[in-house]
Amino acid sequence: MDLRALRCFVAVAEEGHFGRAAARLHLAQPPLSRRIRDLEADLGCRLFDRIPTGARLTPAGEVLLAEARDLLERAERARERVRGAEAGRVLVLGTVAGAGLEVGPVALAALRRDHPGVRVRLREAPITDPTAGLREGRVDLALTRLPFDTEGLRIRPLGEEPVVAVVPADDRLATRPRLSAADLAERRRFRLPQGTDALWRAYWFAAEEGTSGPVVASVEECLHAVLWEGAVGLLPAGAAQRHARPGIAFVPVDGHPPSRVVTAWRAAVADPLVGALADALSHAAGHAWAGPHQ
Questions:
Q1: Coiled-coil ranges per the record (predicted)?
Q2: 291 — pLDDT class (breaks 50, 70, 90)
Q3: Topology, domain 88-160+259-288
Q4: Which residues of 163-179 are buried (b: 16+ CB within 10 A; e: fewer)?
Q5: Using CA atoms, how far apart are residues 117 and 292, in angstroms rounded to an integer?
Q6: Fold designation for 163-254
Q7: Residue 262: exposed, middle, or buried by beta-carbon count in 10 A (0-12, 13-18, 19+)?
Q8: Is 261 exposed, middle or buried (0-12, 13-18, 19+ CB in 10 A)?
Q9: Half-sphere exposure of 260 (CA within 13 A, CB side)
């Protein structure tokens, strides 16, 4: 399959709209639509259902989305490795749900001062993988959130971030000044896919397997589940600024532990540059978060 067609497909799937995907890819909409049609013809199945608000994945499209993301990531990783053979070292930093991104620019500037030949590439991992690709070797260091199974990993705390409930704007819960996780218990909550880390699933109050809640793999999919299916759930407080949009309300949550932002890397890997990046992130976080992150 052509990688350009797969990039187009992923953009439409993530945006849920052909027009927004075309703008994101800096393409006119007709060529984008033709590439999707050609991809559907090549695979012999429909990938999207056209709906009034845009485009929704078919069951075949949902299967392809996971495969396409993996293929594109592997292609990009191969490209970086080839480039790295003749250029400076490339460190891949994985992130989950916007963890600690505000400290990134300061950390990167510090790293470049001490290691001017090193480049850092950011990889946004799906929320189904709290290790951000560490265990599969897709990233060198993760900027992520506890809790999850940390066996075989080294963890360094950076700070804390409260959580918020994300609910439809016309829901009565949206009018409350604050909520608790228990307030969401009887509501239709989004779910994480089968096999997701149990500690991670429990912390984010994900619905149990076998329930009717929509399955999500990204923050955008969480928001789509709220808008299109009336689902509710928990997200980091920073989502209220990064993902604000009509139809969705973010309500502070009491009585739930804050999200603990950390760096993580494989304990068996002794790479001085990975350690240097971890140190730079810790130093930057120390200045950004004098206390719990609010």
A1: 61-88
A2: very low
A3: D-Maltodextrin-Binding Protein; domain 2 (3.40.190)
A4: bbbbbbeebeebeeeeb
A5: 34
A6: D-Maltodextrin-Binding Protein; domain 2 (3.40.190)
A7: buried
A8: buried
A9: 12
